[in-house]
Amino acid sequence: MDFIPPRLYVIVDAGQLANRPLADVTESLLGAGVRLVQYRNKRGSSREIFDAGQQLAPQIRRAGGVFVMNDRADVALATEADGVHLGQDDLPVELARAVLPPRKIIGISTHSLAQVEEADRSSADYIAFGPIFETRTKDQPDHAVGLAALAEARKITRKPLVAIGGVTLERARSVLDSGADSIAVISALMTAHDPGERARQFLGILYKDRTESMQV
Predict the structure, then answer these.
(1) What is the mean pLDDT of residues 175-199?
(2) Parallel, antiparallel, or unpaired for β 182-185 and 105-110?
(3) Dihedral-angle region of residue 130 (phi above 0 means left; psi in -120 to 50 means alpha; beta otherwise)
């Protein structure tokens, strides 16, 4: 399918909710205009991830958004998510494609230009590249690749390119200007006192002086 992610790609990380209800945080993001939400839970049980997916899928769908499950193609299938985002240690793209129904979205994380080249040859709908800047959202984060590498990645693929890792309000425009179609944000939203208001700030920056719709 021809999938173009919105400029703001939000990742709701279960580990950063800080005891705030998942539904409330998600609702505040959707109310701010977010139209793509990925759910990530690196430490939860399969049942916990499934329960969260069952809650999020209809909530995001009602808002006209896209729901992507991190890592787990099986849970994406079970919860009728719109797609799955795969890491380098997860199922290969083509195997996940065989597991999921037709027209489901599949994204793949990459951390080097060689991985971008490999992802470009796959049937992935979009490629995430990073971390662009240093980040602490993973226990063992990859080394930051930087904006210059992002610009090189843009030359390698025509697939939608999602930049991830350490993107803040101050850095957002420079990331787009370096070739990203979309920016994935985790900590800058999850650690904010009001994630919805912070999302509005990101959207204002990402769509400033542009005529594109913020809708998917």
Answers:
(1) 97
(2) unpaired
(3) left
CB-based contact 68:81 (threshold 8 Å): yes
Position 215 scores a pLDDT of 45
Q: Which pLDDT tens digit goes with each residue over 94-152? A: 999 999 999 999 999 999 999 999 999 999 999 999 999 987 665 556 789 999 999 99
Reported in sequence order, the residue ranges of 51-188 that DSSP labels E, i.e. its strands, are 66-70, 83-86, 105-110, 126-129, 161-164, 182-185
Q: Which two tokens stand for residue 27?
A: 């609702």
- The answer to whether residue 18 is domain-embedded is yes
Domain that holds residue 105: 8-206
Which residues, listed in sequence order, are joined to residue 37 by a DSSP beta bridge? 10, 67
With beta carbons less than 8 A apart as the criterion, state whether 141 and 132 touch. no
CATH code at 178?
A: 3.20.20.70
Residue 61 annotated among the catalytic residues of the structure: no
Is 24 part of a structural domain of the chain? Answer: yes
- Does residue 211 lie within any of the structural domains? no
- Determine which one of 7, 35, 40, 72 is catalytic: 40
Count up the domains in the chain and report the number. Answer: 1
Give the DSSP letter of residue 15. Answer: G
Q: What global pTM score does this model have?
A: 0.93
Catalytic, 138? Answer yes
Catalytic residue (one of 109, 159, 178, 182) = 109
- 40 is known as an active-site residue: yes
